[in-house]
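Try this one yourself first.
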């Protein structure tokens, strides 16, 4: 879970640009087997994120969005910190 904040900048009546970031925590549960040896580790880690994207409103009720998110997850005892790059595609309808 993360607490995020950002800004939405309107380009036109139909397009918005978003930019933001957030902090929070990520639960990691990693296990694998290597040459018959099982390695398990789980932890709740500090993480933070930055995101940007565009949103298109073809009608008053329909929303289409494309967003890129970079997420940094902290280090575990056996595993290094990780950077995750996520592409998100959204479709929404306002009631």
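Now uncover the answer:
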């Amino acid at each position: 879970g993360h607490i995020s904040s950002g800004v939405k900048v309107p380009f036109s009546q139909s397009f918005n640009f978003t930019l933001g970031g957030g902090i929070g925590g990520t639960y990691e549960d990693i296990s694998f087997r290597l040459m018959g040896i099982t390695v398990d580790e789980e932890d709740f880690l500090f993480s933070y994120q930055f995101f940007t994207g565009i949103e298109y409103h073809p009608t008053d009720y329909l929303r289409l969005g494309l967003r890129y998110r970079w997420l940094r997850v902290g280090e575990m005892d056996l595993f290094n910190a990780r950077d995750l790059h996520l592409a998100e595609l959204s479709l929404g309808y306002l009631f």
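Discussion: DSSP finds no helices and five strands in the chain. The two ends are 26 Å apart (CA to CA).
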